[in-house]
What we know:
Elements (H helix, E strand, L loop, with lengths): L7 H4 L5 H14 L5 E2 L11 H11 L14 H15 L9 E4 L2 H12 L5 E6 L3 H9 L3 E6 L15 H6 E7 L11 H14 L2 E5 L26 E6 L12 E5 L1 H14 L5 H11 L4 H23 L3 E2 L7 E5 L7 H12 L1 E2 L1 E2 L10 E5 L4 H16 L2
Parallel strand pairs: 1-11, 3-4, 3-5, 5-6, 6-7
Antiparallel strand pairs: 2-8, 7-8, 9-10, 10-13, 12-13
Helix pairs in contact: 3-10, 4-10, 5-6, 5-9, 11-13
Amino acid sequence: MPEFELARRIKDLPPYLFAGIDRKIAEAKKRGVDIISLGIGDPDQPTPKFIIKALAEAAKDPSTHQYPSYQGSMDFREAAGEFMARRFGAALDPATEIITLIGSKEGIAHFPLAFINPGDLAICCSPGYPVGKTAVGFAGGEVYEAKLTKSGKWLPDLRKIPDDVAHRAKLIYLCYPSNPTGATATSEFFSELVSWAHKTRTIIMTDCAYSEIYYDEAEKPLSIFETPGAKDVAIEFHSLSKTFNMTGWRIGWAAGNDQLIAGLGKVKTNVDSGAFNAIQRAGAIALRSDFKSVEKMRRIYKRRRSLAMQGIKQIGAKAAKPKAGFFVWAEIPEGFDSDAAFADFCIEKAGVVVTPGSGFGEAGTGYFRIALTVDLDRMETAFSRIEKALASR
């Protein structure tokens, strides 16, 4: 039987963070362990019934069974544009400045292929969602990691990016509200970032998938398009996955500069055939809804956040209360050599999955992330198990 060698872009790629976690979960389950996963951020609440009903009705329409438009249906793009205007005051042309995605992850993964040549440089944040960095590598680009810190409120310090890096970089990839830290970007930071991008001629690629998961009306997350001049240099990725508990549906959009949208669209015409029309129709109805279901979901996450902050303290860890998103980013308890060792301990001794911070980049070393995607009883049980395991260590 012949042996086949993987391409270097795959062979040199570290295992995807959550794939490794899945293997450890499977091994523990084989041993009969009752696993409580605070690892992957997959909402446990169901998709609202009115969206499911809209999909069922749309799926009965034979016109939705054919190939969709590569750019996405105009109805969905118009709904996305209406949402952007209503929520952020951002004026975007659905015809040229919005494109439908098969989930925001797909768009983030494909975008660098449109603008990164082999040897080009991109700036990615550490800690940060790993897909952006991986996508740059797939395009043959190099990555400069902008280290984020607790003291810097988990925002990149643009002044610390060397001039040669800033002027060489083709794009900078950021995620706010942040996965994994829960930090949000301020209007002052976005203004500084847009001015910096104009000066350095750098594309801003920002991930806004968690924009509707927040805890205080006075601190609602921002879109970069609330910043004057942003549309000249930026593309922003949005998703219905977290807002409406639609992770398995795979539907989202990108918005921004028409040249950047066109570049992403050209990639997509060659690698996928668009999102199922029935899902786009249901997604448009979701975006035009009164968002009462989203408000209810926020209240659930707020109660879970309170319990999680108590649990973090209970196990001797430290964390700042997240402003948005459904993750808590915490420093590992004393007595562990690494965040990976702590994560392994939690699975092996407590049957609890937490995500090691180093999986989000070197600057995440010494931290761990938990997701607020289990009910209060299970979360309380998880922290009690970890506390008991630590006590008997």
